[in-house]
Amino acid sequence: MTSKTALVLHGGAGTLKPGDLSRDELAAITLDLNRALDAGQAVLRVGGPALEAVEASVEVLEDSPWFNAGNGAVFNAEGGHELDAALMEAHTLRAGAVAGLTTVKNPIRLARAVLEHSGHVLLAGPGAEKFADTRPEIERVRTDYFSTPARRAQLEAARGHEAQHGVGAYFGTVGAVALDARGHLAAATSTGGLSNKRFGRIGDSPLIGAGTYANEDVGVSCTGSGEFYIRAAVAHDLCARVRYRGDSLEQAANELTHRVIPGLGGEGGLIALDREGNVALPFNTSSMHRAWLKPDGARGVAIFRDDASE
Ligand code: ASP
Fold this sequence. Notes:
Order of helices and strands: EHHEEHEHHEEEEHHHEEEE
Strand content: 15-25%
Distance between the termini: 26 Å
Bound molecules: aspartic acid
Number of helices: 8
Shape: globular
């Protein structure tokens, strides 16, 4: 066992600028990002697996109304919610994912159940809900549990001024990547998708290799306009650049975030960790909620571009 653990989180790329959040909002968001770090750290500190750490952190963010996952998820164009999530364990390449959920309180927990118990990687819609019926650990809610006034206002705004589906001013997906004391990596992502998305739309988050991936070298969770992350297979491409081309984590993460995605017309960011505990948290939007706990114990939370030192 090494003791070099690390954990990085995101609460979504977005278009927030300093001054857009009140002091109370900033404090509440920071508190919940810190609570999510604590939940993952509690697992890692006692030698627990990275897979469990990322699940624990993401559950805290799903339960928080400040993020677009679980409670606080965005609305689709029909005024409902469809939730997507995935997680992946690097050293076994085991993965579990769910898409289009409407009654599962913590989608990441169902993704874990898919990984452990279904014999499949990705379950969607009514089939995923039916699988949830068989799992006693999965808590169910009425779909309005996910709704918040702020997200409804976003839907109204999106309906008001755009013809295209899926263009929200603020994303807010959540994700986590952890390195455990055995040197194993895991990554997880959970989201309500894009505000005003078409019914049935599935984004990059639950697609292994697009929004979520982990191999023995790198773990990654993406956030942003998912269609572009799917087309560029960003999460897997990042791992491949490091593994096959020998790029540094920073080089590969920056190239994808600042050249490949904008080159296609997309925007967003990602969080990534390599097996040495190096951290990359690039984004090409004005904000990305993020938090980190580095192997040397350095800990931080940031939202805007010029926030804090990473
Ligand atoms: N990538 C997510 C999606 O397209 C949205 C986000 O990151 O906020 O579903």
